[in-house]
Amino acid sequence: MLNLTPAQRSELRAEAHGLSPIVLIGEAGLTPAVMKEIDAGLNSHGLIKVRVFGDEREVRIQYYEQICSELRAAPVQHIGKLLVLYRPQKEVEKERSATRGKGMREVTIVKPSGIKKPTVTKVMVKGNERVTFGGNIKRAKVRQTSKKKRALGE
Question: 0.70 cut: is pTM over it?
Fold first, then answer.
């Protein structure tokens, strides 16, 4: 189980306020499939909410402790039937997401052609290009500067 300082826990609670629960624990309890989904959620998001259906508080606390110990997650908050869990994301995933949006990317263009099947083409698009609704590729325009800035020479 991961330990957090009160300041870290407070920040994570504030960050989790706007989140919706991504895993629901029903009457079957904490099955291996539910644990797998919680693990996948922690891998992809880092901070997740889990909703537990059931009126027994002791059972919810038991689930909370079991999830944190088995998945090496930090307990952030247990309020009512909601459990908030945190596990830091791995560095490899952060690096991959940091490079997203740069360079070339592959885009699939589907053009309807009347009665026949639509034509599907895969095209490599640069970072400053976009695909229009008609399937054409357009380069992003240079942003215009205001007359005042042009007069000042900026």
Answer: no
